[in-house]
Structures are given as structure tokens and as C-alpha cells.
């Protein structure tokens, strides 16, 4: 029966996302049928109920994907954050549970940076106050006198996507741009014409406007507190369109009340949607309700990207923007995608053909790959092996963790090849010296997955459907007996390959069959004369 995947969407998404999920482009089509439950601004109690049988959660910032929610989510395999910040997602627990977390970096950058500049202009020219007064019939040309941006210094904390776009816009207003971001190279500062400050203190001492553009995490929570605010020049202003809590709100209120800091513009708060009342009502503060990403353009890009990420994840492909797959970035090319499928298949095959206690898994790769691509192959091999050998849900995300927990070691080796060979050898070693199996596989023509060897026996058989692996004495009549036995049991043979080590010695056969095979049929095979063993390898 066709599996149904439930996708729960708890935040408002652009129509393009629903269109793509409902009418999947052929290259992203999934085999399951999708049940989409779209509840924008879903209340917490509804989310906690709906999550129980949800496979994919797509959310925005208002949904806390915390331990309470994750523990109820028995079927969840993907959390898709339709934006950038994922501070509201318990990524450690998600990783432990094998849940992939994805986001859409860069897709709302321009909108967030434009809002930041909008807030800055609104603040220094008192636009909201002037509007309120004028629209109410007033005409106060002197009360709403402001200050210029030109020649003022903006200090940017976090010169990432949004930060460097703000830098560019600020340059357009003839501001001096200084920035503090210890995690990026000198080049990024140079390219964005931002003067690098090596410490936060240096930055604070020199800026008239402080704008934060860092993620919220343990390091950045409260990074601008009373001490830091007091290190700014008197008369400075604060912008926060990143995350509530980066600038400590009570401390900000204190310096605003003292008049040390003369204004603040804030889009993101500690306690959304009920921010600190005294702060939002302060006469020198202007506020917006976390709308940095709320533009038609950003939402279109986010909706399109998040739908594609979800479809890729459901197809078992590595996504473009994984949050909790630290070692793997883009699945660069289609070639690598096909190679990673081969790696998963060969190890899943290997997992089903030995009877000893495994200790070490080894993948030897004959190809010319970079470190990242090798990591993809490694994860694919671990995932393939464990998905047969483990009861747990195994994904690219938790594969390494589960392997460690099982006490298994993994070795990977690359044999560079002068021609563009794509060959893999997957080996499983037991604790004893003689316990070992090896399975070779190759990509013919760069795309067709073929099993090429099992131990010393050579083959060329498609790695598809269910396979029977049989060992027999090399004597006349075996193939005939097996063929008629399978026919009697209504099993259709798609491909039959025989390999032997020497004439009259041992032979190994691989039989690829159409459809599924009952284990009793395989058990019956073992009773045929001259058969040494027969086992079923499935799930390829
Ligand atoms: N108001 C809104 O609706 C929106 C808010 N955001 C928020 O803006 C922030 C920045 O977003 P992006 O620029 O897209 O992220 P990003 O990841 O591209 O940039 C963040 C930068 O902060 C730097 N950083 C991290 N820790 C730091 C520290 N302790 N000190 C100094 N620098 C540090 C990183 O090196 C990086 O360059 C995030 O918190 C994001 O959630 C983003 C878009 C919309
Ligand atoms: O991208 C971000 O980090 C944002 O804050 C945007 O969040 P949202 O999806 O608008 O709730």
C-alpha cells in the first residue's frame, strides 16, 4: 500500500510552497502521497496534537520546536524552518532523534536588511511619530526635527548575510561602517568595505548606531547588556532586527530612561508575541512585530526553497540547507547523488550476507573525490548498513551517532583513479581474524548501479529489487532445480548470475526476482540438493 506522508505547516507560507508540494516537478516527485495539514498561526495545543502522526513539520518563528513537541512527534523525520533563525528549535534533540532540520538561509536577507534601514531612518527622522501627529490633524514642523545618517558611524555585530547587506546600504547613506564578527575572514570585511574591529568593546566605543545581526545562541544571548550599552558613546541608538535577547531588554530600557541611549528600533523581542510593555511603549522606541522577512519577494523565495528542501529530504537526497548535518553541505552534482545511492545499496546488501558479530565496516572508494563528497559516501554507507541492522529510524543525521552507540568502527579509504572510475568495495570485519565479507559495486556509464563482486566471486547484476544469494557445489542440475522450484512458487526471475571460483568447486549465484519474496520460499531453496546456503537480500 502506498505510504502517506503527513506534512504539518504551522506558519503562514507563500502559495508557491503548497503548489510545489501538491504538484511536484518530475525531478522532485516523491513516491508517497502527501497529506498537507496547513494551519497558519496554529495554536500550541493544536500543534501538540497534530504533531503526533506528522512526518514533516514546516514552521516559522512562532512555533517552538522544543523537547515537549519533539517527544510527542513519534513519526517526525524533517523539521523545515521556513526562514533563517533556528534558535527556537531544539536541534540537539532533533539530531539525537534522527530528525533532519533544514532552513532557507539567504532567502530573506534583503528584506531583513531593508527593514533594518527602514527602522533606522524612521527612528532618526521620527517618521512614525510625525505620521501619527500629522494624520491626526497636527502640523508640528519643529517637534519632528531629526538627525542625518551621513558621516555617522554604524557598528554592525555579525557581518553575515543580513549584516553585510546592511553595511552596503549604510555605505549608500555615506555612513562609516565598522563591524565585529570574529568568525569570518578579512576578505569579507574588505569586500563589504567594513572596517574590522577585533573586539566588541572597540566597536561599541566608536559607533553612533549599533545594529545586531547575529543568531541567538548561548554566546550571543545578552551579548549587549548594561555594561556594553554603557561602553557606547552617550547619545547612541540601537537596532535589533535579529533576535530578542541579543540586546538585554531591561538594560536597554534603563539606558533609554536615563537618556544615555537616545533611541531604539526593534523588530524582534524576547517574549513574542507579548513583548516587554514598558519597552514597546517608550517614546524613543519604535517597534514592528517581527516582520523582517515579511515581504512578497522573501516569502516567495522561502516558500519555493522550503518546498524543494522537503521534497529532497523525502526522496532521501541530501538537502541544500541542512542545519544539523554539519559535515555535509550541498550534494554538489547529480553524479555524486547517484554514487551515494550506490554506496547506500552496497552497504545495505553487505549488511544482509554475514553471520558473525561485526566490528569494523570499511568503504574503499575508487574515484577522485574531495573530502566533502567522501563524507557523503560515508554517511550513505553507514545509513544503508544501519537501516538493515537497526530497529531505529536511521537518517543521514543520526547515522554516525547510532554507529558509535553500537560500538562499530568505520574506515574509509580512497584509491584515486586516473580514469573516472566509480567503484566501491564495502567490507565488514568481525572480531575474529577470519570473519570478513566484501561486496563490490560499480556505476556503469556513471549511472547504472551494478553489484560486481561478493568475496572472490565476480558478478554483473543490477542492485535492485529483492535478490537471492545462493552458494552451491558446482555440479550439474543445480540451476534447473532452482529454476523449477521458483517457478512452482510463482516467483519470476528477472536476472540470474552464476559465478564460481574454480571448475567443480564452489559456486555462488545471484537471482534478481520481480516483486517481493516470502522468506519461506527461500528456506525451501536450502533443501534442494547441492545447495549450501540461500539467503534473501531485500530493500535495495
Ligand atoms: N527580523 C527578521 O524577521 C529576520 C531576522 N533574521 C535574523 O538575523 C540574524 C542574522 O541573519 P543572517 O545574516 O541571515 O545570518 P548569517 O548566519 O548569515 O550571519 C550571522 C553572522 O553572525 C556572526 N556571528 C555569530 N556569532 C557571533 C558573535 N558571537 N559575535 C559576532 N558575530 C557573530 C556569524 O559569523 C555570521 O557572519 C539571525 O538571527 C536571523 O535569525 C534574519 C532574517 C529575518
Ligand atoms: O529568518 C529569520 O530568522 C526570521 O526571523 C524570519 O522569521 P519568520 O519566518 O518571519 O517567523
Characterize this entry briefly.
The chain is of the alpha/beta class and 540 residues long. 33% of the residues lie in helices and 24% in strands.
Write up this protein.
- With 540 residues, this protein is an alpha/beta fold.
- The protein folds into 4 domains: 4-107 and 297-314, Rossmann fold; 109-287, Rossmann fold, CATH 3.40.50; 329-454, 60s Ribosomal Protein L30, Chain: A (2-Layer Sandwich), CATH 3.30.1330.90; 456-540, Alpha-Beta Plaits, CATH 3.30.70.
- Helix content is 33%, strand content 24%.
- It has helices at 15-22, 44-50, 67-72, 91-96, 109-124, 127-135, 161-172, 186-191, 200-206, 226-231, 249-258, 277-280, 296-314, 334-350, 371-389, 399-405, 478-488, 519-525, and strands at 4-9, 33-38, 56-59, 78-81, 100-102, 153-157, 176-180, 195-196, 209-212, 236-240, 261-266, 285-287, 358-366, 409-415, 423-430, 436-444, 448-454, 457-462, 466-473, 493-500, 506-513, 531-537.
- Helix 5 crosses helix 7 (161-172).
- The longest helix is centred in the middle third of the chain and has 19 residues, at 296-314.
- The radius of gyration is 30 Å and the shape is elongated.
- The structure holds 1,4-dihydronicotinamide adenine dinucleotide and 2-oxo-3-(phosphonooxy)propanoic acid.
- Residues 84-85, 105, 108-109, 112, 157-163, 180-184, 213-216, 219-220, 241-243, 267-268, 290, 292-293 line the site of 1,4-dihydronicotinamide adenine dinucleotide.
- 2-oxo-3-(phosphonooxy)propanoic acid (HPV) is lined by residues 60-61, 82-85, 108, 292-293.
